[in-house]
Amino acid sequence: MVTPVRVIIALCLLAPFVAMLWVGSYAKTDPAFIGIPFFYWYQMLWVLISTALTMIAYKLWQRDQRAQASQKGGAAE
Predict the structure, then answer these.
(1) Distance of alpha carbon 46 from alpha carbon 10, whole angstroms
(2) Could you tell me the residue ranges of all domains in the chain?
């Protein structure tokens, strides 16, 4: 069953893959950040962003599962 919450979860999990597979968007040296070329710090930034997005997706999934369980429990009564 596709719900808006599940679409958001899918987007959270898909965004890092798209960002890292689109190499042309970050295959350059400028702008440098504290002497580190863009190519490297962009990828390291996505490690942090990916962690946050995965955590958000997990929390949304838990909420969705609890909501479905309560709906099933309420419907059975």
Answers:
(1) 17
(2) 4-70
Rounded CA gap, 9 and 50, in Å? 12
pLDDT under 70: residue ranges of the chain: 74-77
Q: Which two tokens stand for residue 74?
A: 């309420």
- Give which of 53, 47, 52, 26 is closest to 37, Cα–Cα: 26
Tell the burial category of 64 from Cβ atoms under 10 Å away from its Cβ (0-12, 13-18, 19+).
Answer: middle
Gap between the Cα atoms of 3 and 10, Å rounded: 11
Task: Report the b/e string of 47-62 with b at 16+ CB within 10 A.
Answer: eeebeebeeebeeeee
Measure the CA–CA gap between 35 and 38, rounded to whole angstroms: 9
pTM metric for this prediction: 0.82
